[in-house]
Amino acid sequence: MSRLQYVFGEALRNMGRNALVVLGAVLAVFVSLFLVFGTLMFGEIASENAAQWSDDVRVEAFLSDELRNVDQLQGEIAEWSDVDEVTYVSKPEAVENAREIFADNQAILDLIDEDPSFIPASLRIRPSDLQDYDGIASRLEATPGVLEVISAGDAVNQLISLRDGLQVFSWALAIALGAAAIALIANTIHMAVYARREEIEIMKLVGASNWYVRVPFLLEGMLEGLIGALVAVAVGLGAYRLGFDQIQGLVPLIDLTVSTDFLLQRAIVIVLFGVVVGAVGSAISLAVHRYIRT
Hints:
By secondary structure, the protein is of the alpha+beta class.
């Protein structure tokens, strides 16, 4: 117990001696991990909304009036591995949909009223994955009884790019900011070791091992990372809760809700990441500092 008390006591004393430097390191960890936490939440919001929008993405196949085995065709398409759902839209339903879509265009409404038979029935196919829409469209175009196939190709490509881009951006930001935090903690520990160089030399002269000298500095870095991470999580969650209603009102088309499970899981990851960042920063500084190595 005395050794454990010594380790924690030395770590806290080191932090007290270099309060301003430690504060700078904690703030660096806080800023870095706050941005990472915010990016993770933003990425989850974008991913969830992209998933919701993708539910509305359909490949629509307009059918010939001569096609008689619609049910059979619908069943065959539903069995395709890249198809999630197939919905049949009859001619009367298609006419009503057209009237709603072109409610402000009297010329088209007159055409529909004059001869509604020109509007074909169709099959609306929802892909299992956004990236499958192109292959589905190509297969439908080669299917007998299908007059024309349309899909929101550009919109789908943009959704795919948004989803993949956010994932890459989140990881890149986490790595870059994590590296910056490691460097700042390493510098803090380096300064702490330098400030206690004479004390360290005396400890070694009386037989203290390298690990006995190193552990308090290692623990100091971990505590700095832990404190910075806890503050980052607290501020991030607080800002999200306080600003949710105001921001949601500004962007009503985007659902800003993030599940409690996601927030809890990512908060734990951020805290653990802060501790690891502190440990790695300390280890790097101790590995290269001559007062510890000698």
